[in-house]
Amino acid sequence: MKFRFISPLILAALIPALSYAEEGGGGHYAPGAMASLFDQVSEAPGFGAALFYNYYEGSASANLALPIAGSLDLGVSAVSNSAVLGLTYVFEPRVFGARVMTGVFVPLQSLEVEATASITSLGSASRRDTTSGIADITIIPFDFSWKKGDWTYSGLLNVYAPTGGFSTSNLANLGKNYWTFDPTIGINYFSEKSGFSATLFAGLTMNTTNDATDYRSGNGLHFDATVAQYLPVGKGLLGIGATGFFFQQVSGDSGSGAALGSFEGRTVGVGPVLSYILPMGKQSLAAELKWLPELETENRVKGNYIWFKIGMSF
Asked: What is the pTM of this model?
């Protein structure tokens, strides 16, 4: 492939996550952001550009308290619109036989959060908050990719920097106010003969402490997978398939701000995905659309993700 899509915003996931668990409405991992054939390093050296869009809407039970920026909030609901601008570069020299990529992704986000009851030091009341601007930037210092026949193996590091705004007086915050390091491995099978593709990514999010609230969100294990069948349509390939995701905290939240204790969260979801790859000489244009409903959650808001991704190498 001569294009590069990569999430976790993401992925990550690289778009700010709104799946509520951990402090502040969830960690940096965004379910389904990095899950498919598109998220492989290009075999062609050079620059790549990408634009991701994500819409998320979800709500939690009125009886579930969530820790958000130093307060405890009941009946939380959230709506998020995010766009991520990404620039990547694949180096010409190989390292240990692997193509090596680096990249940076800048997310722009609008966010609306409501709570039926927000418990603070001043008492309890319902509140609503909105904000927009630059959220936490994702840096990929390295992404190694080995291609062996129909198989591709990868290992990368996503680093989420606390560049978005954060205040303990806000219900809606663009930033998490802590760093996250997310080492991730991936494996992909793609048969040019049959057009069948299967992809799996697995990673471990590791968070630093939010100094403003003395809250450290626990580490989380995540899996994202896609199976798809590609068919010749027009001058390109149309992919039809499904993407699934699984996230589970494997260590509890800690610090004096963790009033609910370990508060370990989980989310599971699956949904359809459509993609299209269009070769353009030495370049390729690729686009992907998917809807990912959360089927089961624990200590989180439950909702739906809609993703649109488009990218090109040059």
From this structure: 0.90
